[in-house]
UniProtKB/TrEMBL annotation:
<feature type="transmembrane region" description="Helical">
    <location>
        <begin position="427"/>
        <end position="449"/>
    </location>
</feature>
<feature type="transmembrane region" description="Helical">
    <location>
        <begin position="152"/>
        <end position="171"/>
    </location>
</feature>
<feature type="transmembrane region" description="Helical">
    <location>
        <begin position="302"/>
        <end position="319"/>
    </location>
</feature>
<keyword id="KW-0472">Membrane</keyword>
<feature type="transmembrane region" description="Helical">
    <location>
        <begin position="397"/>
        <end position="415"/>
    </location>
</feature>
<feature type="transmembrane region" description="Helical">
    <location>
        <begin position="274"/>
        <end position="290"/>
    </location>
</feature>
<feature type="transmembrane region" description="Helical">
    <location>
        <begin position="183"/>
        <end position="205"/>
    </location>
</feature>
<feature type="transmembrane region" description="Helical">
    <location>
        <begin position="351"/>
        <end position="377"/>
    </location>
</feature>
<keyword id="KW-0812">Transmembrane</keyword>
<feature type="transmembrane region" description="Helical">
    <location>
        <begin position="217"/>
        <end position="238"/>
    </location>
</feature>
<keyword id="KW-1133">Transmembrane helix</keyword>
<feature type="transmembrane region" description="Helical">
    <location>
        <begin position="100"/>
        <end position="121"/>
    </location>
</feature>
<protein>
    <recommendedName>
        <fullName>Glycosyltransferase RgtA/B/C/D-like domain-containing protein</fullName>
    </recommendedName>
</protein>
<feature type="transmembrane region" description="Helical">
    <location>
        <begin position="128"/>
        <end position="146"/>
    </location>
</feature>
Amino acid sequence: MLTYTPNTPQSAPKTRENVWLLLLLVFVWLWPGVFSHDLWKPSEPKIYTVIEEAARGTFWLSTFNGNPYFDISPLYVQLAVFWQKLLHPWAADAYSSARFASVTFTTIGLLGSGMAGYRFLGRHFGRNVVLILIGSAGLLPIAHFVGEKSPIFAGVGLALWGYSIANKQVLMASLIAGLGIMLLAQSAGIIMAAAVLFSGCLLWLHPVWHNNRLLTSLSSIAAVALPLCAIYPIALNLTQHNAFQLYMQTHIFGSFGGTHTFQAAFSLPYYLKHVLWFAFPALPLAAWTVSRGKWLQTRAGAFAATWCAVYSVLLTLTPERNQDLLVFLLPPFALLGAAQLDNLRRGVAAFLNWFGAMLFGMAAVFLWIGFVAMNYGFPVKLAERAAYFSPYYTRDINTMPMIVAIVFTPMWFIAITRRHIRGRQAVTNWAAGMTLVWALLMTLFLPWIDAAKSYRPIVAQMQSSLPENVQQDLQTGKTCLFTQPENLDARIAWKQYSTLPINVKNSGCQYELVTYNPQAEAAPTQGKIIWEGRRPRNKQERFVLLERF
């Protein structure tokens, strides 16, 4: 007699995972690049100046050179001030302390995204989301440098977390998502913040989300978010009415402007070009989930699709072309990528693992060889190229970074030798490889990079070009050094790295610091050139120190 036994669905094979290993990897990933270097362009010098002024200014109004500045969340600025007061100077320098604000918001974003993966997809999937995120190159500068985009990442992560529990824990969902919307309103404007609620309204049209519980959650989220978002403009209006009017007229809509300056543009080609590297491997893993079919019939799939559609339209229309704005899409990409990660074909997982091993392994070997070349002159050709790209670098080998680099390199090589690689292990190895290369870059190469990106060597040369008696006269006020108020880079650099005062009001000073673009402007001729120079390989910015006739 023949019997029929139906096929039973096979669950993903169990893997031995320890939460503490994930926490250790995230902890290691968070810190390289935070310590022991000067302010780097494009955003650090300007944002740090805002933080400095906030430490001695008003709580609600951030300023840059005394003028209102609304391009960064006041919560970020005040958190950076808090970390500076707490850690500087006994635990960290002033620059590193300010970067703790970015680390804090990035941690919140990782927590929110991981919890969204756990609540949407189930146990272990939250880890997958976090691993995909820290393996994405686009998140590195947002997390480790002073900048205005880490609160956006935190806001997106909290919004995802809120929606993931909206059908079960309405009150908690409203609090978490409301906080995320507040962060987005302060960091990216009310249009980007309102899109969180708009995405929820569109979700209600989907059969999986079409229930009264979602409507209740949306009402609760709005009830929490609206008062939180109103706190900042109301407080600004009460304390700085003129600044409030400027905020409403030029910045209330974020990148789109304000009530008097609203604008839009077509930025789709720019973001399509940058999303390929910014969101790798999150984007291809999300594409794999989409190719599996029926993903749109799940709560997570419907939510991620709706979110990505809404924010893709907004990024297409925004006049601001900044690759870091793709952080709006990175967490939902990671959520989609994690959904089918355990079902990734063995061949695809093996290829991803092999590609990561080759890419990061070759990068690690190159970084070690480059470290030897720049410090000991061998290989000669590589040492010459290192000196060409960073001519101000002098040998600087610190014990702690060397220990970190020496310990991490063999640990990664041991980690990638595991057999029977599946999707989760491949992504783990990728995240570990990204962490290794970033750690080596920010330990072995950090002094070399800092010498090329920092303004400190240029300011030191400018100051040393002045005779001792002139420097004393500048200190005592017998003479003065002038620069135009619009020379923002020169003003910030001189303020941060020079011991001599600089004047932006008295244009009759005997000495003047001029900044110009040699590709578009003629060299200044209104005085005797005492010194001129530029940062290495920067052909669009040149500094000239003049003694006026």
